[in-house]
Amino acid sequence: MPKKVLDARNLTVTYKTEKGLLDTVRNVSLQICSGEIYGLVGESGSGKSTLARAIVRYLPENGFLKEGKIYLGDTDLLNLSKAEMRRVWGKRVTMVHQDPNAAINPSVMIGEQVAEVARTHLKLSKKEARNKALDMLTKVRIADPEVVARRYAHQLSGGMLQRVLVAIAMATNPELLIMDEPTTALDVTTEAVILDLIGDLMRENDTAVLYITHNLGVVARVCSRVGVLYAGEIMEEGSIGQVFKDTLHPYTRGLLGCVPRVNVNKKDISLKAIPGFIPRPDQLPPGCIFAPRCELAEEACRVERLPLKEIDYGHLTACRRNEELKRYGEVVADMREARSETEYGELVLEARNIKKYFPVVGGLSMFEKNRKREVKAVDDITIRVRRSFTMGIVGESGCGKTTFARCIMGLEEANAGEIELEGELLPYSVARRPRDMLRKMQMVFQNPDASLNPQHPVGEAVARPLKLLSSVNKEAIQERVKELFAAVNLPEDYIYRLPHELSGGEKQRVAIARAFAANPTLMICDEPISSLDVSVQASLMNLLVDLQESKGTSYLFISHDLSAVRHLSDWIAVVYLGRLWEIGSAEDVFVPPYHPYTEALLSALPIPDPDIKQESIRLKGSVPSAMNIPSGCRFHTRCPRKLGAICEKEEPPWQCIGYYHQLCCHIPVEDLQALQGEGLLKKERGAEQ
Q: What is the DSSP letter of 519?
C-alpha cells in the first residue's frame, strides 16, 4: 500500500475581520498518498488557496486554524513551533505558484537560487549545491543548463521560469508538493510539457502532489483523484473516472457543462454556465450552500445541509439527490435551435500582407553598422472577416497574434500591407483614422483592470465611447448605458460601482459592454477569457454568441485556448513566428490532415474526459527569436515531422484541401493524412462508443 503523506482532518480556517470571525473553509478533510496527484478544483473564491496555505501553516496574520488536525507522514504539524515549521518548508513541503515572476528573485542568477535551496536544506557545500542546481535544471529539461544558470529571470520565457520553479521545488525531494494554478498563464504547448514534467518527476521521486486548478482538462490528464471545493466545503470527491463519468453533485455537473468541446461549436450547443455567484463567508445560505444556484434544489435542500457521504467505494458527495444524478448520465450541454445554413454576409475586414517589424536598438546591434537588426513580429499575414462571422487566431505566446491585432486596431503602425474596413482603406495609425472608423472597430483586452479607471464608476467607462464617438445627448447616453448593462447581464446599480467592487468576470462584462457601446462592426477580442474561471468563461462565451446574433457584429477572437476558439469561431487561422500556417473553417482545421504545428497544438489540448487517450506530440524548445528566423520553413527547428534538408532550405508551399482549407507545408496532404490517421476527433468518438 502507498504511504499516506498528507492526512488533513476536519479543517476549519477562520479569519479575523472587521465583521468578526469568518469561517472561510469548513470541515474539509484531505488524504494524499506517495506517488499520487490529487486535484482540487473549484471557482475563484471557493477557498482552494486558503486550504493549501492552512495545510502548510502559512496563513496571514489574521488567519488561523480553528479546528482540525494535519499530519505530514507521522509528524503532527500543529505541534511544531514556527522555527520547526521553517525546516519543514522548502524541504519536506514545497510549493509552485501561478506567477513565477512573483516567486523568483529578479536580482539573483537562476543557478544560485536553486543552489541556495540545496545549501540551506540539504547542507551541501557550495560546489555540491552548484552541481545539484545544474542537475535539477537538466531534470526539468532546460537546454544548456550551465548557460541558463548564469541568467536572470527577465532573460527567460514564462515556460522556462515555471520549469525553474519546479526545479527549486523538487531539489530537496519533498514528501509533498503543492501546485497552485502552475500552468494557468501558459499556452497549451508549454502547459503540456510542464504537465508531462510534473508526472515524470512525481513518479521518479514518489512525491505526493496537491494540484490546485480550475482547469478540468488538466485534472483529467494528470490527477488520479479529485476534490470539488465550493464556498469552503467539499461537494464531491472520488477517482477521476468516478467524478467525471458518474458525477454525483450538481456543482460538479455545472463545472463540466461550462467546458467547451472540440467536436461541436456555438452553432450546435450553448454552454451550461452556472447562474449566480459563490456566496460570501458572512452570507452563507441555510441548508446546502449550493442550493441558490442549483437547478435541482428542492425545499429540503434549503433547510438541511448534508455532510459528505460515501455512495460508492471512495466516491463521496454532499448532495441528497445523488441517486437521481446517477440516472442523468453524462453531462450534456444545451442544444441550440436548428438554424438554416446561410452564406456569410459581406466582407467587413480585409487585412492583406500585414507586416510589423520592430527595430532593435542598443545591445550588439550598435556594433553592427552594416546589418539592420529587426524583430519580425508579424511577417506577411492576410485574413478576411465577414459580417456576423468569427475568425479565431491561435498560436503560442510570442507568435505575433496580439501584435497583429494591434496593427488592425492602429495601436501599432504596420510597416506594410493594407487594412480595409467595409471597403474603406484605413491609415496605419489610430490617430489618423476618422471618427466613424473608430466607432466601427473596438477591442476587448485580456486584463480589464488595465483599461478601467480605478477612481471612476464603471458606468462612466461604458459611457465614454458614446460621448466621444456619437452625438447623442446626456439623457440618451444614460439610457444607452442601462441597456448595455442589461445586455451583458449586470444589474443596473453596478453602473455606480468602482472597478475594485466587481469580480474579474464582472469587469470583463463591463469591458464588453463598453466595446458594444458604439455599435461596432468589428470587435477584436484579445485573450478576453484566459484568466477566468470555467463558469465565468462559459457565461462570457454565451454572451458573445448572443450579442453577435442580435447585433450582427463580427469578431476577431485571439486566444491560445483551442477549446474556446473551436467553440466560438467560424474560421480559424493558425499563426507561428509571425506567419500563417493553416487556415480554414473550424470544422476543417480540427480534422486531419492538418499542419504539424496544428497537430502539436491539438495534442497538447487538455480534454476533460479521462477516457480519451491523446497521442503525445511535444514541441522541443521554445519559439525561435523573431530577430533570427530560421531559414526555409521557420517551423523546422521544432517540427516532429520534418522531412530533411528541403525543410531547412526552402520555403514551404501552400496546399489546398477541399474548397477553402489551406495549409503551408512541404509534406504532401496525402502523406499528412496517412501519418495523422483518424486524428483527435475520431479518438474522442471512439472513446464514447
A: -
3-state SS class at 192: helix
Nearest to 598 by CA among 310, 395, 391, 440: 395
Q: What would the mean pLDDT of 509-532 be, rounded to a whole number? A: 87
- End-to-end, the C-alpha distance of the chain in Å comes to 34
**Residue with C-alpha cell 442550493?**
291
Higher-confidence residue: 78 or 360? 78
Residue 565: pLDDT over 60: yes
Whole-angstrom distance, CA of residue 480 vs CA of residue 468: 14
Check residues 233 and 99 and name the one with the higher pLDDT: 233
Amino acid at the residue 221: R
In our burial notation (b when 16+ CB lie closer than 10 A, e otherwise), range 464-488 reads bbbeebbeeeeeebeebbeebbebb
Distances (CA, A) of 268 to 263, 304, 334, 348: 10, 38, 9, 25
- CA-closest candidate to residue 174, choices 148, 144, 198: 198
Q: What's the grid cell of residue 615?
A: 497521442
180 vs 455: CA distance, rounded Å: 31
Q: How many CB atoms lie within 10 A of CB 613?
A: 10
Does residue 593 have a cis peptide bond before it, meaning omega lies within 30 degrees of 0? yes
Kindly tell me the burial class for residue 76, based on how many C-beta atoms sit within 10 Å of its own C-beta (0-12, 13-18, 19 or more): exposed
Q: Is the pTM of this model over 0.70?
A: yes
pLDDT, tens digit, 9 for 90 and up, residues 539-553: 888 888 988 888 889
Cell of 286: 441555510
Encoded amino acid at 599, one letter = E
10 DSSP assignment: E
Phi first, then psi: give them for residue 68, nearest 5 degrees: 120, 175
Helices (H), 392-533: 401-409, 435-440, 458-469, 474-487, 504-516
**Position 438: which residue type?**
L
CA angle 180, 93, 6 (to 5 degrees): 90
Own/partner contacts of 165-168, CB < 8 Å, gap of 24 or more, are: 165/96, 165/97, 165/100, 165/103, 165/104, 166/96, 166/140, 166/194, 166/197, 166/198, 166/201, 167/114, 167/133, 167/136, 167/137, 167/139, 167/140, 167/142, 168/94, 168/113, 168/114, 168/117, 168/136
